[in-house]
Amino acid sequence: MRKLILFTLLLVVCFSVSAQDIRDPRIFIPPIEGVGRPADNAYFYRQLSSEVVFLYYSLVRSERFSDYTLKAVIWPLIVSEEPAVVPTPVPRRPNPAPGTREFFSWEVNENILFFDPSADTVVVPEPDIPAEITNFTLVLELIDNYTGKNIGQQRLDFTTIDVQVRDLLSVLVYNLLSGLPDVDETYDWRENWFFLETSLLWSPRIYYRDNTHLINPDVPPIYNLENYGARAALELQFLSFMSFGIGLQIISDNFEISDTVQHNDVMLELPLAVKLVFKPANKIMIEPYCGLNYNFSLTNTTETSRAGWFYGMQLGIKAGAGMIVLDSRYMMDFQMSTLTVNNQNYDRNSAQVAFGYKIGFARKRSLLDY
Fold first, then answer.
1. Domain holding 31: CATH number?
2. Label partner for 116 (CA 20 to 30 A): which of 63, 167, 273, 279?
3. Who's near 346: CB < 8 A, 6+ residues apart?
4. Using 50, 70 and 90 to split pLDDT, how confident is the model at 369?
5. pTM
């Protein structure tokens, strides 16, 4: 058990040091828009994805979980003696509320165009392109998904795709993405719907035989300071200041019946807890809690009290992607337990000290994240 505890401590420390709060920005690339030829659209989409990965940014498949959107639109480039005119790009299609019909409009070449995004299929009108038009322009836009603002734009004119177009595209993508800062996630590490915890337990226990301590206080109780175990717990933080937790823990339940008889049992415990959540500073989460504990004997050497109550407090300190947790708890059974070997009744009180690691997932997102 001591080796297991030391190994767990070393694992938690190494994980905390290696994990970082800073991560690379996540980039989302939507399908190529505009009036590009199918082969051109496929090429540019594939090439943009390769460039993002080549620059060591994270390429994601959903705008919802991205930090930036790299949008590409292809428009015809009319070559004449007059300055070339690039039509106004069509804005993104909005997502109307379920059960509603909303109409959206935009201006293209001084004409107001409308469409209904609630319909199953949306036909986006395209400008009339003469058959002889073979020159196109690719417009790249980098959009900050947290603010919705366009933070950069690049343009590439082309007729056919060749090596020069590929090289120029690499330069344009580099110009757009090279200045992006790393994302610091320390601000939201506690704002998650779920938390998963694994811990090692030390559980000193006190056993009172036949409730004799209530009748004769001089009868000494039985102490055992060498009960150990492990815990896995899942926590739902349904409010920012309150959560509900359910756990599964296996722990030894040993004590000396007499000078020659030793009782050895292994308990399966299912704690259910309601927790208050306090989040002072940026590195700490404090959770006082209380709840019920359900007990089961895995060796059938004890007719144990099926339920008990407990209260305690958990301290979480930011470390890497999650937090190191220190947990102290006091527990008491509702009823007396009975040893099957000699029908000896006893009352059990126990404390638990836990050390482990907790990590959150399913982040709570604000309106700015969409």
1. 3.40.50
2. 63
3. 207, 208, 209, 210, 222, 336, 337, 338, 339
4. very low
5. 0.53
